[in-house]
Amino acid sequence: MSQTELSRMTWAPEPWSVRTFNWHLLRGFGQSLPASITMSAPFVGYMILYHAQIETYLGGLGGLLEQQVAPGLCAPWFEFSTRLNIVYIGLLLLGVGTIIYRVFAPAIVKRAIDINEYVIETLDNVSARNLRSMYATIASRRPQVASSFDQRAPWLNRDKSLKAASDALKKDDDNQIKIDVLRSFYNVQDRHTSRGMVYTVLAFYVAGFSLLSAPGVAFTGRVLCVVGHDLGLVGE
Predict the structure, then answer these.
(1) Residue range 129-144, pLDDT digits in tens
(2) How confident is the model at residue 100 (pLDDT cuts 50, 70, 90)?
(3) CB 69 within 8 Å of CB 230
């Protein structure tokens, strides 16, 4: 096999689904505080400002929707009990998805914000033994990538002695071998670990967020209906 053919085989692009749907993507949903706050804003606003049943607890602040000039024309899409059930099920699905994420997601993905942080945190402490272990994982899941290291750093293969590997690593003055192995190991863990669980968590998150958004979307439609009547944009 020529060097050109080997290069093409080594750097064959990963499928779009693998590059897009991975543990790093789910980490954004599972651990992002700003996203959680943003997600809750419409529901908190709805409960505080508009729900008539809590008006007596907030000094008349609730129930504002019923005080519009066209009361009763824009009926709720869901009953209050139905909305509560939808929100509960949505939260339950997100909770189950998060549990699965935390059980199956690779530790390095959960610990580091992204691949660059992982490399920076690990670079100074990684040893030849660690790199050889990472190389074995890379070879088992992405042999095409591992083949490139066979050319550049044959000491990563466990056929070589650990002493020979340690001596060779000392010659890596610019840390390029370390960086490339660390980045490849992170990508393998992120994109090629428990793929079935990635899609399972994604399904729970999509279903949970969809259910959570349903009452907010319905209520927003009702507000727009009332505003349309107030401004004369919608006929009775």
Answers:
(1) 999 999 999 999 888 8
(2) confident
(3) yes
Tokens of 27: 């980490």
Measured between alpha carbons, how far is residue 148 from residues 29, 166, 217, 229 in Å? 34, 20, 51, 67
pTM above 0.70, yes or no: no
Give the ranges where the chain is alpha helix by DSSP (H): 3-10, 16-20, 23-31, 33-45, 80-104, 107-111, 115-123, 128-141, 143-152, 162-170, 176-191, 195-230
The C-alpha atoms of residue 167 and residue 204 are separated, in whole angstroms, by 48
Tokens 């505003």 correspond to 227
Distance CA 98, CA 87 (A): 16
- Residue 85 neighbours by CB distance under 10 Å: 14
- Asked if 177 and 169 count as a contact pair (C-beta separation under 8 A), the reply is yes
> Which is nearest to 30 in space by CA: 86, 90, 95?
95
Burial, 204: exposed, middle or buried (Cβ in 10 Å; 0-12, 13-18, 19+)? Answer: buried
Q: Which of 144, 128, 146, 126 is nearest to 136 (CA)?
A: 146
The radius of gyration of the chain's CA atoms, rounded to the nearest angstrom, is: 27
DSSP 8-state secondary structure symbol assigned to residue 146: H
Model pLDDT for residues 67-91, shown as the tens digit of each residue: 554 555 666 666 767 777 887 788 8
Instruction: Please check whether residue 119 is in contact with residue 183, taking contact to mean a CB–CB distance below 8 angstroms.
Output: yes
CA–CA separation, 138 vs 177, rounded Å? 14
Cβ-proximal residues to 180 (8 Å cutoff; 6+ apart), any chain: 149, 152
Closest CA to 132 of 166, 157, 167, 106: 157
